[in-house]
Design a protein that fits this description.
Elements (H helix, E strand, L loop, with lengths): L1 H5 L3 H4 L5 E3 H14 L11 H17 L14 E4 H4 L5 H5 L7 E3 L10 H5 L5 H18 L18 H9 L5 H11 L1 H12 L2 H7 L8 H17 L1 E3 L5 E3 L6
Antiparallel strand pairs: 1-2, 2-3, 4-5
Length: about 250
């Protein structure tokens, strides 16, 4: 089904035995969400888990920022260890300060649609394209959607992500902080602000251009770390010492 959804060859969809792609992770966790009675008790299905994985993904791309154009930015190319990201389902494992998620990348698929701004205009830097693509991947991790037509609009305008994201907020599936992070990553206004800052000098920029919410991968990582801290702070213990996540939404 995943292969059919992306129109991708099955051979390229495969991963090493001890690793899975983010695309495979999304598929398997979505099946858990649909078939399990106690979804709230399974940390894998939580916003916190998706955000923690996203933190490691952003850090990986930040560490390789000198080669940002050549790093494959596609959920079928980004790999995590199965034993780290799929086997542990208990909250204690995911909330541990020792929790580490190793990220690697395989040569996989053309990632034009994940770097859409950079391919649509030479005015956008590779950094802007990377931020956009990471925003789309974060949205997929949160929604557990592994095929892209659900956010397709017309190629020249990118994806129709706003309605998808707003529905998540309405249903209490995403916190306001993560909503703001993804909005900043995908926002045309944000991209135009970054572009203008590169064109104008510092004086004119300070007077004429509003600050973009997320301009660099460093800022994206900082925001995700702040979101994780907020999510961790807003967890409660219920019967039998089990953990449940409260979703913080601005009204």
């Amino acid at each position: 089904m995943v292969v059919k959804g992306f129109g991708l060859p099955e051979k390229k969809m495969s991963s090493p035995n001890n690793k899975i792609s983010l695309l495979q992770w999304i598929r398997e966790v979505k099946e858990m969400t649909e078939n399990q009675n106690d979804v709230l008790g399974n940390a894998l299905c939580s916003e916190y888990c998706a955000t923690l994985i996203m933190k490691s993904v952003v850090k990986f791309f930040l560490d390789g920022i000198e080669h940002i154009e050549s790093l494959y930015l596609h959920p079928a190319s980004i790999l995590v260890k199965r034993e780290e990201c799929l086997k542990p389902k208990d909250w204690d494992s995911w909330l541990s300060s020792q929790k580490e998620i190793e990220i690697s990348i395989k040569d996989s698929f053309q990632d034009t649609m994940y770097r859409y701004p950079s391919f649509s205009s030479n005015d956008y830097s590779p950094m802007i394209g990377a931020i956009y693509g990471l925003g789309i991947i974060f949205l997929q991790l949160l929604t557990k959607e592994f095929s892209l037509p659900w956010v397709f609009n017309r190629p020249e305008y990118g994806y129709e992500w706003q309605s998808v994201l707003y529905r998540l907020l309405e249903k209490g599936k995403v916190s306001s902080h993560n909503y703001d992070i993804i909005s900043a990553c995908l926002s045309l206004e944000n991209r135009e602000t970054i572009k203008l800052k590169g064109i104008l000098n510092d004086v004119a920029c300070a007077q004429q251009v509003n600050d973009a919410k997320i301009e660099t991968l460093e800022e994206l990582l900082e925001e995700i770390e702040a979101s994780l801290a907020e999510l961790k702070e807003n967890q409660i213990s219920v019967a039998h010492h089990e953990t449940r996540q409260l979703v913080m939404i601005k009204i």
